[in-house]
Amino acid sequence: MKIAIVNHVAMAIEAMRRVVLGSALHQIAWTATNGNAAVDLCLLNTPDLILMDVIMPGSDGVEAVRQIMASCPCPILVVTANVMGNCSQVFEAMGAGALDAVNTPVLEWPASRKGAAELLAKIETIRKLIGLESSTRNQKQHSPIPHHPDRNHGPLIAIGSSAGGPAALAHLLSYFPAAFRSPVVVVQHVDPQFAPPLANWLDHQTPLRVRFAQEGDLPTPGTILLGGRDRHLVFSAHGRIAYCERPIDSSYRPSVDVFFQSIPRHWRGEVVGVLLTGMGRDGAQGLLTLRRNGHLTIAQDQLSSAVYGMPKAAADLHAATQILNLSQIGLRLRALGTQRIHVHA
Question: What is the pTM assigned to this prediction?
Fold first, then answer.
């Protein structure tokens, strides 16, 4: 991979340069010390991946991510000195299209060994994602379970998202009123260490409660369950939440495909599957499974997507019953979750 580094601290650039060049799989495309220079260099020589700091003088990394994703989109990994301390900026960058975040490695040993391993692991995940083929593509399609809708609540809202997802989710959840009667389960590609602040942040965007999905949870109206472990979130017997290790070769854990494909097996009721912004193909095949089982499926459109990868893959497979912009999705889900209507795919 050709990897670019953006950071205003010389020692940080050197630490990342050593990590990148320590692998025979990677090379340095260029380095920049501020967001403006990064945008200009990216236009001239778009790399396979950018390691972007969010805290820089002048044009910071968040604004650089926005401009790059608008003019010359490419994978971006936030690499900053203190991810948890800079949570707000990290989520802003991820909302603008960055894929993930990790702490900046250091030059001092033995801390350098741990930092290098963490950075290389993130790079490897993104390397796989760039050429991602869904590991669940060839899984057997299951016959639909007879639906027995609960008249006390609306359809299950199942949402999958990745790059750009935090901001998209915040916007979407803001449409849900306190009287929203649909249970909601979300799988967002996010490092487990960012899941707690993400759940807390999303909880402030909606009158509904947002919390981690725990083993054995039964989705109910009034609560939004967020996948929060380094395992796949699935539905198990009796429509309850479970976590599992397999498939072990998925580029992301949790996988949206694995989540979506578990729903027709165990959820006895109506479902609305929603696939939001993200890079790669995860979720497209799962959305098609939901559509083939008679459920309403929605994909975000290109114009409102920070990264039009996952929704595009769904559109190419004809997996989406409807392709809508983010605000239209919010209005559609609000109507479904507040009215006693039957959902038609």
Answer: 0.73
